[in-house]
Write a structure and sequence with these properties.
The protein is mainly alpha-helical. It is built from four helices and no strands. It has helices spanning 4-31, 34-52, 72-89, 91-114. Helix 1 runs antiparallel to helix 2 and helix 3 packs antiparallel against helix 4. The radius of gyration is 33 Å and the shape is elongated.
Length: 118
């Protein structure tokens, strides 16, 4: 395992190389003249960015067989609201939706209490 002094020496060597390369590149850009200097500087920066980009692809977390995106508690709210309106207009359907909302609310509440997500 490298010691701290070895890491510092290596880091210092890298910094010196970068400074030397920067000096060489700036001399080349300055030699181009006033007209092409801006374009060459932008070109050098874009090349440097392209070469030094590191793309880290994050993998999505593994999906368990027990985890799902279905939330019956959330679905019970619109069922309850629609059931209240339909209870006045068409009682059998309204009653069925209110009963469904009650079942989903109980299901969602129990699943939230019993199966805690990590």
């Amino acid at each position: 395992m490298p010691k701290e002094s070895e890491k510092e020496e290596h880091s210092q060597e890298l910094e010196e190389k970068i400074e030397d390369l920067t000096k060489e590149l700036s001399d080349l850009i300055n030699a181009a003249g006033a007209k092409g200097r801006d374009e060459l500087r932008d070109y050098a920066v874009s090349l440097l960015q392209e070469e030094t980009e590191t793309s880290v692809i994050e993998e999505p977390p593994p999906v368990d067989a027990t985890s799902s995106v279905f939330n019956p508690l959330a679905l019970s709210i619109p069922f309850f609201l629609i059931g209240c309106v339909l209870l006045l207009l068409f009682p059998p359907v309204g009653f069925f939706l209110l009963l469904s909302a009650l079942v989903m609310a109980l299901w969602g509440g129990l699943s939230a209490l019993l199966f805690r997500r990590k």
